[in-house]
Amino acid sequence: MASFSMEEFVGDGCLKKLLPRLLEEGWDDVPTLKLMNSDDMATLGMTQQQKDSLRIRSYLHDRALMQYADKLDASGKGLPELLNLGSVDLFSRFGMKRGHIARFLDRTGPASNEPHSKLLVSARRGPSPWRTSSTHSRSLESFSSINKVSSFASRSSPPARISSSYFDRSLEQSLAEIKIKEDYVFKGILAAGPVEPRACGCVQPPQVTEKVAPYYAIENISVKKLMSEYKIGMEWNVKAKTATVKASELWRDKPAVLLCMRRPGCIMCRAEAHQLYSRKPIFDALGVQLFAILHEHIESEVKNFWPRYWGGVVLLDRGMEFFKALGGGKLMKDSFISGFLLNPIARANYRRAKAVGVDQSFKGEGEIKGGLFIVGSGKSGIAYQFIERNFGDWAPIAEVIEICTKLQIQRHSHGGTKSSRSSNEFD
């Protein structure tokens, strides 16, 4: 899996000497750097070799093939030339494995190299296995999708579409109208993955809550910052003493996405964190913060997780209160045998994560399930809650972006947010 460390991204090639300038100009994290267009490159005075290097490394990063970056970079060829090479050349000259060759030559795969800042979320038609419920009394027929997404970046390139995948489901059955008025509190949306019989129906899956967690269940949770948002040159500082803060401080001025992780060493958790953080420029443009929340602190596991799979803020919820809120007041747990070996969806989730080159470790508690919250700014409440029903279930990224986009549109329509200070203390 491609790392979010800037030093690892630029490697030992011709981009290395540009690091101080990139930091000065604000290109200080990998997702943002990959958005750089021709005009930006010209402004920085990049040579043709450096431009080619950035395009090659961005393409490889999207496909989790960064192990070949230095060799391809040193070849002196541009990305179009490399893509026109045959399998024999890629193997003999760069030592590329057969499966990696197929991934490298696949220009239309889900890991598209198109800029994320112009992604237009499409509401696909058709049935959806994702269960959604709302505390509103309205039926699913009243749910509607947003077909119009605000332009949340100033790039001039044409909009791109998120490629069709398992998670890009119809939003018509998963988005409720959320209208912000003065002192309005979100009712929220509750979502979870599909469920299938285990062991021919002999084993019943654990029940999940049918209600969105109340806001009071999360606002007073105490969290501790383990890692800040990654920037070039940051040193490992997990031992630095940081104050414990009330969770409501995280989203006091800006909405927040809270990724509650079962275990940072888990291959499926790492893959989910990586695919979410890779959309960081979208969330930045929408004014939404990203936080990863752990329920236990194993220093080696945090160090192996950050910033390789997640370059954002990492928080510790030692009391597991966010995880209890996801489960309706109690922890959601499942065993390895019934929750994984006998669960075809969990095994499919594992294969999906394995296919994109994620490493794993087995340290730590792995039976406590996680999920994701989207919380509006101030006391507006929980806008979205996703439950990890099966090990490795991900919140559909299309839903997450749609909810955050809608939050942005509504905040702007009400003249922005009242802010006396930013949440930079958590960056």
> How much strand content do the residues show?
5-15%
The whole-number mean of residue pLDDT values reads 78
- Biggest sheet details: 9 strands, mixed
List unreliable stretches of 5+ residues: 110-180, 417-425
Coarse shape = globular
Provide an overview of this structure.
Belongs to the peroxiredoxin-like PRXL2 family. PRXL2A subfamily. It comes from Trapa natans (Water chestnut). This is Peroxiredoxin-like 2A. InterPro entries: PXL2A/B/C, Thioredoxin-like_sf. Its main location: cytoplasm. By secondary structure, the protein is α/β, with parallel strands linked by helices. It folds into two domains: 6-105, no CATH class; 171-426, 3-Layer(aba) Sandwich (Glutaredoxin). It is 30% helix and 11% strand. It is built from 16 helices and eleven strands. The strands form two sheets. The chain has a nine-stranded mixed β-sheet with strand order 2-4-11-10-7-8-9-5-6. Strands 1-3 form a two-stranded parallel ribbon. A hairpin with a 6-residue loop joins strand 10 (371-375) and strand 11 (382-387). The longest helix has 17 residues, at 397-413. Residues 110-180 and 417-425 have low confidence and may be disordered.
List key phrases describing it.
Glutaredoxin; Peroxiredoxin-like 2A; 427 residues; globular; 9-stranded mixed sheet; redox-active center; Thioredoxin-like_sf; cytoplasm; alpha/beta; disordered C terminus; PXL2A/B/C
